[in-house]
Amino acid sequence: MKNLNNRYFALRHGQSKPNISQIILSHPEEGKKDEYTLTSEGENQVRNSLKKAKEQELLDSDTVIYSSPFSRCKKTAQIAKEVLGVKDKIIIDDRLQERWFGDWEKSHNSNYQKVWEKDRQNPKHQEEKVESAFDVLKRTISLIEDLEKKYTGKKIILVSHGDALQILQAGLLNKSPSVHREIESIDTAEIKELKIDK
Q1: pLDDT tens column, 44-89
Q2: Which structural domain, as residue segments, surrounds residue 60?
Q3: Which of 45, 133, 150, 198 could lock onto 14 through a cystine, CB 3.0 to 4.6 A?
């Protein structure tokens, strides 16, 4: 991708209940459950991030909001819609959902590190039934390609998860998904404009 017709803003969901429990929660059906939504602190984090972005005139009521179907992202997207005064509906897209961590599901989140170490060696690895970084890149980039055909001159928020957003950013910078952890990470509730390597 040489140029983008739109401006894309990654918004990682706020602090969630799985974050507090320190578990990996990546199964699509589990992720949609309300019991795994944001904590009250997470809601505050998101609200503060959006207020700041609005004050800085980075985002406004014309912003288009796309979200992962996971409850922690949908709640984050709802707060974004409310704070920015967006009238249009939030669009849910499965391509923004959490990376599937396979056999590591519901284990301690220190196991992310093991997956990332394998990613460095081989971005196509699917050890322990993990969704490969390469496959995450394919699905997130395909969303950007579709949005580029659908919109022009829009600001678009992508409400998603750490790995999905890191891997997408790597792809836009024309880097291998194997190095996604070497790119500056996006904190919970952080809004970051996604850049491309021209």
Answers
A1: 999 999 999 999 999 999 999 999 999 999 999 999 999 999 999 9
A2: 7-193
A3: 45
CB-CB contact of 104 with 128 (8 Å): yes
Q: Is 56 exposed, middle or buried (0-12, 13-18, 19+ CB in 10 A)?
A: exposed
Helix axes 162-172, 133-150, angle to 10 degrees: 70
Q: Are 1 and 172 in contact (CB under 8 A)?
A: yes
Region at 72 (left for phi over 0; alpha for psi -120 to 50; beta for the rest): alpha
d(CA 119, CA 134): 9
Nearest-angstrom CA–CA distance, 17 and 39:
6
What Å distances lie between residue 63 and 53, 157, 184, CA to CA? Answer: 12, 7, 25
Q: Is residue 113 part of a domain?
A: yes
Please, what's the b/e burial string for 97-115 (b: 16 or more CB within 10 A of its CB; e: otherwise)?
Answer: bbbbbbebbeeeeebbeeb
198 located within any domain: no
Residues 6+ apart with CB under 8 A from 137: 123, 167, 168, 170, 171, 177
Is the overall model pTM greater than 0.90, yes or no? yes
Domains held by the chain: number? 1
Q: Would 2 be classed as within a structural domain?
A: no
Q: Which two tokens stand for residue 76?
A: 């984050």
**Interatomic CA distance for residues 193 and 124, integer angstroms:** 27
